[in-house]
Amino acid sequence: MQINGNDYRSVWFEHHRVKMIDQNKLPHTFAIAEYSNYLEVAAAIRSMTVRGAPAIGAAGAYAMALAVLNAPDEKFRAYMRSAKAELIATRPTAIDLNNGVSYVYEHTLKFIPDYTHARQVAILAAREFANKSAEDCHQIGIVGAEVVPHGARILTHCNAGALATVDWGTALAVIRMAHKQKKDIFVYVDETRPRFQGARLTAWELEQEGIPHAIITDSAAGFYFWKKEIDLVITGTDRVCLNGDIANKIGTYEKAIMAHEHRIPFYIAAPLTTFDFTCKEGTDIPIEIREEEEIKCINGNCIANPGSPALNPSFDITPAKYITGIITNKGIFKPRDAAQKVQG
Ligand code: MRU
Q1: Is position 238 annotated as part of the catalytic site?
Q2: Whose CA is nearest to atom 5 of ligand 1?
Q3: Does residue 318 line the site of ligand 1, with CB under 6 A?
Q4: Top-level class of domain 2-138
Q5: Residue 197 near ligand 1, beta carbon < 6 Å
Q6: Which CATH superfamily is domain 141-343 in?
Q7: Residues with Cβ < 8 Å from 196, sequence gap 6 or more?
Q8: pTM here?
Q9: Which of 96, 238, 245, 316 is catalytic?
């Protein structure tokens, strides 16, 4: 992605350090965070310095590479095993994290006890995982632009942009490409409570690219459906199951139902790293529950009744029957066929 005239990825590996755009500081401050051990990267994933399923997949892969670099020879396997478990536990819903960490872990294991070689392989494997993820997202944009009619008014939820991936985005890759093709689109950006990924990050990315858009409250989407001002919904996802059910940011499910009620196409965009080939259906997906402070306080200002508890599920499940198609780098598929088709 281009920021202030320079090319960036959301996360990368340089001089034995994991570097990332600090997404908690955007849109007001653009800063790069960097870490030299995997525990720091684990904390950055947990606190959402880096976030978005494919981006945390790549961050996890690089963090696993750091763990391998720092693992003492005499405890190599045990150190790797506990790093893998700690990293995967930071955010349970996005399967990309599991996939990224496991990719580096499995590739590295094959070279033990040649520890020098194993360390080189870990870095190469992490880079390979991140590069493939970025290429898939670029291709998703090219493939997906065909579902965007000229003049489309598109609703998106959360941030499925370049920040949420290694580069390009998923839902936003499609939107970017449609804009490049001069389709005269307009994007409704759900603010996405409680962390405001739409209002802070999607809006920032769209502004950088000069794509016409407006931020709306999460509860305003129904009003725009009712006014017939939404032609298309596109979001990303944190996990796609074998039956085509998906998990995505809390609030996605209700948008899918509204789209269904109004007979508006509802698309999900996902790279290969977001497919879980062991997950039969949505009820098998673990839903991350985050701290109640995220709901009750904004930037340290507590806005809610202090004595009341809050419930903060971070994701919900959208059943396959509400999804028009899953946009992948290999094509656009019916939800129930997608897992099989992306593997082929
Ligand atoms: O909690 P987040 O911000 O990591 O959630 C991100 C989302 O829900 C995105 O829509 C999803 O990861 C797809 S990103 C291409």
Answers
A1: yes
A2: 52
A3: no
A4: mainly alpha
A5: yes
A6: Translation initiation factor eif-2b; domain 2 (3.40.50.10470)
A7: none
A8: 0.97
A9: 238
Q: Report pLDDT digits (tens) over 118-166.
A: 999 999 999 999 999 999 999 999 999 999 999 999 999 999 999 999 9
| Ligand 1 neighbourhood includes 249 CB (under 6 angstroms) | yes
Q: What is the mean pLDDT of residues 84-101?
A: 98
Q: In CATH terms, are 2-138 and 141-343 the same topology?
A: no
Identify the residue whose C-alpha is closest to ligand 1 atom 6: 52
- Tell me which residue of 148, 128, 142 sits closest to 234, measured CA to CA: 148
What's the rounded Cα separation, in Å, for the pair 91 and 42?
9
Residue 97, Cβ neighbours under 10 Å: how many?
28
Distance CA 262, CA 340 (A): 30
| Per-domain boundaries in the chain | 2-138, 141-343
Residues in the chain, total: 344
Say yes or no: CB of residue 237 within 6 Å of ligand 1: yes
Nearest CA to ligand 1 atom 8: 249
Q: What are the C-alpha distances in Å from 121 to residues 8, 106, 117, 166, 254?
A: 24, 10, 6, 20, 44
Angle at 193 between CA 190 and CA 195, to 5 degrees: 110
Torsion of CA 53, 54, 55, 61, to 10 degrees: 110
